[in-house]
Amino acid sequence: MVNAFNITSGFNSLESIFKIKEAGATELYGGFLPKELDRKWPIAFNILNRRGEEANFSNWNEFEKAVNQARKYNLPVYATFNGLYIEKQYKSILSLINEISSLKGIKGIIVNDISLLLLLKEQKYKKEIAISTGGTTFNADTVQFYKNLGAKRIILDRQLTIEDIIKIIKADDSLHYEIFGFGGGCFFIDGFCSSFHCTENLNYENKIIETYNTKQMNFGCNLVLKNIIDNTNYYKSKYKLDNNIFIKNFYHCCNLCNFYELKNFKNISLKIVNRKNPRQSFVKVVKLATDKLQKKISKTEYIKYCKKILKENNIFECKGNNCYYT
Amino acid sequence: MKIEKIKFIDNIKFLDKYSKYNHVYLGSEFCEKKIFTLKDLKSIIAKENKQKITLVFPYLTQNYLDKVKKMFEFINLNSNIFCEIVFNDWGLFYYIRNNYPNIKLVLGRLLTKQKTDPISYNIIYSKQAISSLKSNIFVPKKITQETKEYFAQTLINSKIFQKFMIKNNIIRVELDNINWNMKVKLPKQIKASIYYPYVKITTTRHCNFLNMINSNKCKKQCQKHDIKLKKYVVNYDYVIKGNSLNYKNTILPKDEKLKNNCIDRIILND
């Protein structure tokens, strides 16, 4: 029986493609940023796309080779252009989109900047446009807004309940939807978050040191969360709060159980957030979970199975508190 | 160009308290549970004090968007009072534009897409200190001019987006008072507002965790108090206000600088 779900994984090298395919991916997404653009707008700041350092290709030949290889494996590739841009950048971004889209293995691009969408519509862009989670799609009317701008695929926000997701998909089944399957937990709403992110790695005397300033931490959001965690007792006493579960609950990265409710839809891709060092195990557990849904199984049995495969694949021991949004 | 000051209130019960303002903002930018009801709007119309009111809407899940849609017939009929709609959700924009083309729209702070995290300041101006980690000395890279320009601007400066705004009756954009230089250039049909003193950084639907509440049910914690975070690593005042994270920036640019950035309105959000 053919699995109804597509499984979409990030990739960052030719070598990673085979492993990800073997683990069960059916689609890929990744980024290419030439060095001359990186020099102006360093990828460490996630300006041109949100994949961060070491998650993008910077050499055109390597990227082309990887996309061709993916095509041989029948893995369509989406290129990420999910940054937020300013006027000065659009010319370079459009030129890069056109160059990348000329590759046969590229199925489309992932976008969320409204001006870029307007420009792509104006130039009658031919390949598929997918709206990034940065597009903050929380309802079916937002889907229509993006459809009107040329979108064929919508990546839904992480912070939707399964009921919200089902309502959106049922409202228009002519589009393809992507929901977060595994990885890349984010405490805040990605597309509304302006927390400073710096994903720079410096290779200093063969030792990797993270970020522009280790004292400031690499993500602004982590700084705030760490503040809350380290000072929970102070806040609890000052504001008479009652939380004892915060620390265990701020990392939301798994959606396996929810696939059960989505098993009858035919237009869903499950996104695996793989940036640098793509994890096959993430793809594998999503594949195992969705395969299980091809046979008749009760929800209780299915959830038990999901917990088992998470543990067996050394990802984590599920205690029911790593869910994306419930 | 005169710069007006307008009070932002999140609950109809405060309207009388701020009756001296002839124009207020009412609503929520971040939380759909805090939206006023149609009954609230009707009670405003029944009042003798005819303040102009800009209604503010957050991002909306389908259930709440469907509830909100039911208010628009009334809002449209009373546009002399409900003079503008601030939207932070493209779905709400799409609905209003298709059904009420005459309603004046304002692009909310969540959609103007400024970079606002105050930590960025240290990076943009290369203020971060050389630091050591274990045995290594870490020297931060210099920031390029292009990156500095990037942090000062957003898509609202782009020509194609400005055309889109004019075509769709978006007459204003809402901005944060970031702690570094901003550069806003708008056509004369579009003006900008700046929020003071709270600058939004981010928002979440995991509100109970952010507010350290041991329950998924909304306890309306935000109506009791904000949570002022302790100074931690960096010297900025972070404040949790409901489901949003903000920092307090008490330094407002001089009028001339505001005017140069097309700003003719200050929204008091304290």
Label the CATH architecture of the largest domain in chain B. Answer: Alpha-Beta Barrel
Would you count the extended β strands of chain A for me? 11
Low-pLDDT stretches of chain A: 202-216
First CA to last CA of chain B: what distance?
A: 25 Å
What is the overall number of helices of chain B?
11
Radius of gyration of chain B: 20 Å
Helix run count of chain A: 13
CATH homologous superfamily caption of the largest domain in chain B? Enolase-like C-terminal domain
Give me the CATH superfamily of chain A.
Copper homeostasis (CutC) domain
β-strand number of chain B: 14
User: Within the CATH hierarchy, at the fold level, what is the topology of chain A?
Assistant: TIM Barrel
Give the topology string of chain A: H per helix, E per strand: EHEHEHEHEHEHEHEEEHHHHEHH
Overall geometric form of chain A: globular
Q: Which structural class do you get from the secondary structure elements of chain A?
A: alpha/beta
Largest sheet of chain A: 8 strands, parallel, barrel
Count of domain modules of chain A: 1
Side-by-side strand order of the widest sheet of chain A: 1-2-4-5-6-7-8-11
Could you say what the CATH architecture of chain A is?
Alpha-Beta Barrel
Shape of chain B: globular
Averaged pLDDT of chain A: 88
